[in-house]
Amino acid sequence: MSAPFEERSGVVPCGTPWGQWYQTLEEVFIEVQVPPGTRAQDVRCDLQSRHVALAVGGREILKGKLFDSTIADEGTWTLESEYAADPWVQDQMQRKLTLERFQKENPGFDFSGAEISGNYTKGGPDFSNLEK
């Protein structure tokens, strides 16, 4: 039996008391559960090259040193409703994750200009059951 896609692709959500975090080959995502009615003005996010801090409504959620340096100017944060997920954004993320998985599984090939079409949801087709 093959490992789940999340483990094969290196995208493994890490649950925490405040939400979860996960990373791709190039990005780190931190998802924090906030109280209903939270506004952008209630959020304080401080990302520095080796440090991150987040407070919501004056309450510190997370604060700490990062494992490696980041480019702080490239960091972004959004406040989203769980019901307002944009289907186009989800589609683009699935395509990106599928290409990252293909690159990791086939390191000798260059997928930088590739485009995904067809069945790529949930990591694309599962070929683990095919005979070798």
TrEMBL record:
Main subcellular location: nucleus
Keywords: Acetylation, Centromere, Chromosome, Cytoplasm, Cytoskeleton, Kinetochore, Phosphoprotein
SUPFAM superfamilies, per the entry: HSP20-like chaperones
Gene3D superfamilies: 2.60.40.790, Single helix bin
GO MF annotations in UniProt: unfolded protein binding
GO biological process, one term: protein folding
InterPro entries the UniProt entry points to: CS_dom, HSP20-like_chaperone, NudC_fam
Signal sequence, start to end: none
Span list, region Disordered: 108-132
Stretches assigned to the CS domain: 14-115
Entry's Gene Ontology cellular component terms: centrosome; cytoplasm; kinetochore; spindle pole
Subcellular localization(s) per the UniProt record: Chromosome, Centromere, Kinetochore; Cytoplasm, Cytoskeleton, Microtubule organizing center, Centrosome; Cytoplasm, Cytoskeleton, Spindle pole
Function of the molecule: May regulate the LIS1/dynein pathway by stabilizing LIS1 with Hsp90 chaperone.
Assembly: Interacts with LIS1.
Protein name from the UniProt record: NudC domain-containing protein 2
Organism: Myotis myotis
